[in-house]
DNA sequence: ACACTGTCGCTAATGACATTAGCCTACTGG
DNA sequence: CCAGTAGGCTAATGTCATTAGCGACAGTGT
């Protein structure tokens, strides 16, 4: 038997592919093994178990989002940065709804590097608003809620007709930028 | 063997209880059967399968949220109504995070009555803003995104420290009400 | 009282998965 | 060339969902 030449990364690649066709529910070790042409137990040489594989998948997805969002926000600041970030975020979800949905099954591990990075980018985009301490934290949470909420609903088909989703999202962007840049200090 | 006196509703009750302790991942037919003191296959007399049970659970949760939110918004209008609605929504999530999380595994069936009702309440709360047609739809989507996004993140422990979540949510309320009542027509 | 019928619960069996144990062999460094 | 390890495999176990088929109990109409 020739070696399959697997690696943890290759397993995650395959897992992502499985999710892409078939949706989050299709992510099983059997499916991944089948895709890379290996018996199911062989995967355990590269991945601790299904739970870990799921975490690796969400880390991968977070990395991809962070890459895209970082590039979009690069060289921008204030409302402009937040707008670009939000649009880039959604563009990922629109392109890979199944991947985004896959994250629901395994939250990012505490202290996950990709999650931290994405969060950092988000804080960076808010820098232009000159928020301090707790206010900055609150603003970041609002931004996350808005972006993630829309993403989850759209990825899951939670909105009725897909029509005009762009316009809805533009409104959300307006609401968020308007609300976070305007009224400081809400307590 | 004395009858257990089950019914679809009773099965959903038990399923919700299973989710409450144990989290969404603990929802299995075996666990539900054990809780009501019945063999697993007996559940099929009341529920088509696990997928349907999950849907029934999400309908139940949506009903509970709709009840709470409807009462909160009753007799209020405009920003006041939206504020009350948002606070009531989150209060449910804080009390029953596992139930809320359980909805991720089974989106509301197309045309689900509870989902429609909740959506209707939401539209009702926005009535005070005098939005028309597409603008109203966009506003509703923004409201849903914000509320659901925050809820998902909080229920999943997605925010770091739980500290000050109240303040963060109040900011979100301010952002949403400010953004939706102010600038009509964003196109 | 009594048979009748359908409802509801049970046991047995099947099949998909995850996971573990233990074996065997292809590479890799000396 | 040789040894050791990494990476694959088969076999076995346990949990679950799901289906099939069996029996008992409750309510109905006589």
Automatic annotation (TrEMBL), chains A, B:
Signal peptide: none annotated. Keywords: DNA-binding, Transcription, Transcription regulation. Residues 28-47 bind DNA. Residues 5-65 form the HTH tetR-type domain. PANTHER family: HTH-TYPE TRANSCRIPTIONAL REGULATOR RUTR, TRANSCRIPTIONAL REGULATORY PROTEIN. This is TetR-like C-terminal domain-containing protein. It comes from Actinomadura chokoriensis.
